[in-house]
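User: Hey, quick favor. My workstation is busy. Could you predict this chain's structure for me?
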Amino acid sequence: MVFRKLPGVSASGMGLRLSQKFVFLLFLSGLVTLCFGALFFLPDSVRLKRIFLSKTESQPVTVGSENDVREHLKKGAKDPEHLRGITSAKGETSTKLKALSRKPSVTNEAKTDKKVAGGEALEDMTLSRSKTDSASKDEKVTSSSNQGANTDTSFDYNKFKKCLLKPPLGIEHGKPSDPQTLQRREKVKEMMKFAWDNYKSFAWGRNELRPLTRNGHIGNMFGGLRGASIVDSLDTLYIMGLMDEYNDAKEWVETSLDLNSNGEASLFEVNIRYVGGLLSAYYLTGEEMFKRKVMVLGEKLLPAFNTPTGIPRGVINLGSGTSWSWGWASAGSSILAEFGTLHLEFVHLSELSNNGIYTEKVMNIRKLLNKIEKPHGLYPNFLSPVSGNWVQHHVSIGGLGDSFYEYLIKSYLMSDKTDEEAKKMYYSALEAIEANLVQKSPGGLTYMAEWRGGILDHKMGHLACFSGGMVVIGADDGAPEKRQHYLDLAAEITHTCHESYSRSATKLGPEAFRFDGGAEATATRLSDRYYILRPEVIESYMYMWRLTHDPKYREWGWEAVEALEQHCRVEAGFSGIRDVYAQTVSHDNMQQSFFLSETLKYLYLLFSDDDLLPLEDWVFNTEAHPLPVVRKRCLQGEGGTHDKTTSE
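Assistant: No problem, here it is.
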């Protein structure tokens, strides 16, 4: 013992007088208070991590098993507040999870409907506190950011408009000449107004509406940000001509969208919904307020890239800038569909700010992906942000992987077809997908299986049904001799996804469907039978219609409208359902924000003429927010090169 070595202190009973013992205990208690008391005053729940680990330090990277992920998914399926995509790919860990958040509540209503009065009051205080000061705070942050970057942030909106080939809203807002198609489009518009009005009545300022209990849902994936349904709906309301509703949304963003939050957010979800939504609102309307807001938010996402490899972690505290990986992600890895779904938005952040830091961050991701070896040319879903190596060899075109591939071809198209690196990566990846994942069922259905270290899992998630649209928009820019092949492949995949709808009792598709054990395009597991108002199948209908004008895609879209009206419309909004094969449906009490942003927007475009958001000028991000093609030569020139076309 230490005291045995001290002079004047005996071993017997430590030789301490009562006064000495008192002084010693007082000193010891003060030391404990000094060392550990401060922890309770740190601003968020990652105190210990912040004290003992640097921001770029990580836990040791070891290859784990997918059982860890599955365990997380099982828990997520029981948790109504869980992230949007935790099964299938969005009963797997999903991403568009899309990535992580696209699985909603599929639990007992009694559990989801519980509300603590104190919690409600706290939410109300949080929602209202920013109305007087959020705009001024945002302006201060923007000013500080601009001074630090020492850049000219002027963006010539009028010149941008001249660089568009066609007016964004078309000649007559895309009004179809066919009376039946017009009637169907008006029905979709009515659905949007119904969904919006109920959100405004019962959940205004919250992130999403719970239509059965008529209250709002906040969730925990936006880091304290509010109004996800409002930001997600801005462009949908605008293109549908719902101007009173749009103006209400704009006013809320200006006065109440508080970006000075201090919570733990999904980098992916904040980027595709908030950054994407604000960018598209700015480009469509020219309202400077949207630009100011998005530049403040964009800067808050940059610390997520502070890793040894530059691969961002999936979760970031928007206040402190601390970032970390999802707890369920294998070995602290980052997710392909998350770090691979930033390119479109970050390129536009650089365009608006004249600051190349955003483009530099996403180009560094590409640089690393091009450098590392890819098994059979495929991109696994998990990558260590510390070592830059793959963690597990699980490949999916559904959740965890999906929008990475989507953003490759869309980056090429958005660059006015100048981004040759994105083009090469996309067609190389598509070749590997065809060689390893594309399968044909005994019944003749083409589908994209999942790949687990060389073993195929004959499952296709609803999220993977976006791929029909992805393949068709890239059909014209691959090898000329493969154009028809790509058109055929896109049509076959879209047909398979339609079959997953038509083979259910509700005519809505399950979260995942299988092609084994005699099953084809049907869910064989109870955990895969739910439908949460997802857009991916309808998204492919829209692209297939635009690029082939085959009338069956409009008919299939109308089938979806009728099914949504019959099974998902309730008295106070739209709700997902727990089992698409049940004759009597059970609702999940959640009107997802992406239903307003994606599902209804794609339906409206499906029944509109092609000059409403023409694909020559606009690329949709993975939340269906339209972003303009960047025509560098035109923007940097003296005047627009397409003035005549635009003014017609």
